[in-house]
Amino acid sequence: MALLGAIEGGGTKFVVAVCDEDMKIVDRQSIPTEDGQKTMDAVIAYFDQYEDIKAIGIAMFGPIDINPESRTYGRVLDTPKRGWSGYDVLGRMKAWRDLPYFWTTDVNGAAWAEYKTGAIEPDHSLVYLTVGTGVGAGIINRGELLSGYGHPEAGHLMMQKHPKDTYKGHCPFHQDRCLEGLAAGPAMAERWGKTAKDLSDDDIAWEIEADYLAQAAVDFTVTLRPDKIIFGGGVPHREILLPLVRKAFSEKFSNYLATPDLDDYIVPVSTGDNAGILGCFYLAQSKLEKIS
Amino acid sequence: MALLGAIEGGGTKFVVAVCDEDMKIVDRQSIPTEDGQKTMDAVIAYFDQYEDIKAIGIAMFGPIDINPESRTYGRVLDTPKRGWSGYDVLGRMKAWRDLPYFWTTDVNGAAWAEYKTGAIEPDHSLVYLTVGTGVGAGIINRGELLSGYGHPEAGHLMMQKHPKDTYKGHCPFHQDRCLEGLAAGPAMAERWGKTAKDLSDDDIAWEIEADYLAQAAVDFTVTLRPDKIIFGGGVPHREILLPLVRKAFSEKFSNYLATPDLDDYIVPVSTGDNAGILGCFYLAQSKLEKIS
Ligand SMILES: Nc1ncnc2c1ncn2[C@@H]1O[C@H](COP(=O)(O)OP(=O)(O)O)[C@@H](O)[C@H]1O
Ligand SMILES: Nc1ncnc2c1ncn2[C@@H]1O[C@H](COP(=O)(O)OP(=O)(O)O)[C@@H](O)[C@H]1O
Ligand SMILES: [Zn+2]
Ligand SMILES: [Zn+2]
């Protein structure tokens, strides 16, 4: 039986899985993330069980080098994560078996899953923004993952500070000047003295959080003109959040340009907890399609 | 002799021109911009002189509808410019002669000229940002003009206000919250009581202007990862400006991601005053290539 493989590489765990030709999951396993060498040993031991793998999609925590022209293509870039800086993930996999691999970021994987499961029409554009421990974006422009000199790191969009926000910011690079520094889970936790999950619905925290996410939505709108902006990650699990983002977006944007109806434009992720794995399978599939 | 045509539609004048197969300008003419009907009468009278036009590139002041799936494709959208809202520019040209037309914005035309004259490698990415009476961007992503639900209007990126700036802003939609509202020529003129052109090099105005342009450069960098950000329009004629933008970019960005060397990354336009017309010719040419 022909199989596709998935490697969803996260900061706390790696999920590996195989599916059949109809994208039905045959098996999946979770591996705690250790250093590069040990983690990839376990990943390879997992896939060793399967002879007939046709292609593997790898969606990896960033920053990674996805520029095929670069000397360090396929590697993890500088990261505070112990035992990962410079680790050659793609090289390791190719040395194991010379298969087609689709190599991209975790957010690109999730964006691709949303795209392939019908969030937008084929060849249209979307932004997938995850708001959790970090903030990151996967961008699909006219049916292709957008990248240039490297992959987007749109968690670091410059922000206008909310007038009621006195927090010093959490980004080691941009402090309180960027989206991640102001709106990621750890920023909320440090600012309010409790986790995002524990803040009550009527806390002013949500108005401020929505303000920043709405600014990002405006920036995406004026730059990319996407058909949808999809919010994933832990923080948007809070049901009151996206309505507040739509309201703030509407106030900030002042209807300057045509967008789809906001209820269809600023939306939660629909592929849910399987997004990562599913994205990898679809990536593996598109790699195969491109080759043949 | 086979010719290509160019229509550079600006707010104060339209420039029309024809070139030969080697992109050498055969003739050009400037037409003062009146309402849609009158201006296009003059445009058509101009091209009536030439029998053998193979294709025309049209680079038009925005907002315009460039979404081929839209009912109003080819028209000017709502604009304060008298006699232009809803005017069907492309329809008028097609009714005149059924040629291949490349229909896009003025900034896209200029971006395309930069791309085709070698600002970046083929299939790479650039942002062309014009800072004049308005602020607008043309974006080339992997060798294609980027558009989605419509064309970019990246002059309206959300900004963090400079701490020394108390100006109320100039954007009718976003006041002091967006780039155009804070950094366009008219914003500078109103804020400082004299035009950008008349401000001395050591005026604090330039530090503040550079701050906003650097924020935009950071936003483009984290979203699009372009190979170059090119500044055009009247305000960057000021030679001290781009060095200040590079400095502010460097401080704000804190080397968070790899970029090309800043002297090659944040650069002035190189095609100069011919950019608009040249862009139209290249657009006409790519339309022909796509067809054949
Ligand atoms: N229902 C909820 N409401 C608000 N915040 C939540 C909710 N559930 C989880 N979170 C927050 O989401 C963050 C974790 O996001 P998640 O995407 O799961 O993490 P990671 O980025 O590490 O994968 C934490 O800051 C947590 O407080
Ligand atoms: N050398 C200069 N230094 C600073 N500003 C300049 C200079 N030359 C022109 N400008 C400014 O550029 C603006 C006009 O930009 P331009 O791109 O020519 O206009 P438009 O957008 O209408 O085509 C005006 O605000 C003018 O003050
Ligand atoms: Zn940051
Ligand atoms: Zn604006």
**Oligomer kind:** homodimer
> What structural class should be given to the helix and strand makeup of chain A?
alpha/beta
Rounded to the nearest angstrom, the distance between the terminal CA atoms of chain A is: 19 Å
Low-confidence stretches of chain A: none
Task: Provide the list of bound ligands, each named once.
Answer: adenosine-5'-diphosphate, zinc ion
**Largest interface summary:** A-B, 47 and 47 residues
Shape call of chain A: globular
In the CATH hierarchy, the architecture of the largest domain in chain A is 2-Layer Sandwich
Give the CATH level 1 class of the largest domain in chain A: Alpha Beta
Could you state the order of secondary-structure elements of chain A as H and E? EEEHEHEHEEEHHHEHHEH
Main sheet: strands, sense, barrel of chain A: 5 strands, mixed
Number of helices of chain A: 9
Write the layout of secondary structure elements.
The structure is a homodimer of 292-residue chains.
Chain A: E1 3-9, E2 13-19, E3 25-32, H1 36-48, E4 53-60, H2 89-96, E5 101-105, H3 106-116, E6 126-131, E7 135-141, E8 144-145, H4 179-183, H5 185-192, H6 204-224, E9 228-232, H7 241-253, H8 262-265, E10 266-268, H9 275-291
Bound molecules: adenosine-5'-diphosphate (2 copies) and zinc ion (2 copies).
Organism (chains A, B): Fructobacillus ficulneus
Cofactor (chains A, B): Mg(2+)
Catalytic activity (chains A, B): D-fructose + ATP = D-fructose 6-phosphate + ADP + H(+)
